[in-house]
Amino acid sequence: MDDAEATMPGSGGASSPFVSVPIEIVVSVGKARPLIRDLINLGENAVLKLDKRVEDPVELYVGDRLVARGQLEELDGEQAGQLGVRLTEIADLKSGLG
């Protein structure tokens, strides 16, 4: 079965034309709250401290809706050096993404 034949959760098994539409997922690794004067003074090679540690879970969003949490991983093989996210918690999406 290809992506176009997949069914949406809660759709009663009916095929949806939307399952093959790409969506953008934003991965949030943390937040920073610098003072404006400190932000203005940042230069090349400056480090902006985030509110999370490297081992803390990251959050995955579609729009402003949290859809999952996971751990950052560095990929191996042909994709070595590229980041990925191992999902550790999935939100209940049966109510839709809207």
Question: Which structural class do the helices and strands define?
Answer: mainly beta
Looking at the overall shape, the CATH architecture is: Roll
Q: Total strand count, please?
A: 4
State the CATH topology. Answer: Surface presentation of antigens (SPOA)
Q: Major sheet: order of its strands?
A: 1-2-3-4
Specify the helix fraction band.
under 10%
Strand content: 25-35%
Mean pLDDT: 85
CATH level 1 name: Mainly Beta
Task: Tally the helices.
Answer: 1
The CATH fourth-level homologous superfamily: SpoA-like
Give the number of domains.
1
Topology order in helix (H) and strand (E) letters: EHEEE
Secondary structure topology:
Elements: E1 26-28, H1 36-40, E2 58-62, E3 65-74, E4 83-90
Antiparallel strand pairs: 1-2, 2-3, 3-4
Describe the structure.
The chain contains 1 helix and 4 strands, in the order E-H-E-E-E. By secondary structure, it is mainly β. It has a single domain, classed as Surface presentation of antigens (SPOA) (Roll). A 4-stranded antiparallel β-sheet has the order 1-2-3-4, with no helix packed on it.
Keyword list:
Surface presentation of antigens (SPOA); 98 residues; mainly beta; four-stranded antiparallel beta sheet; 1 helix
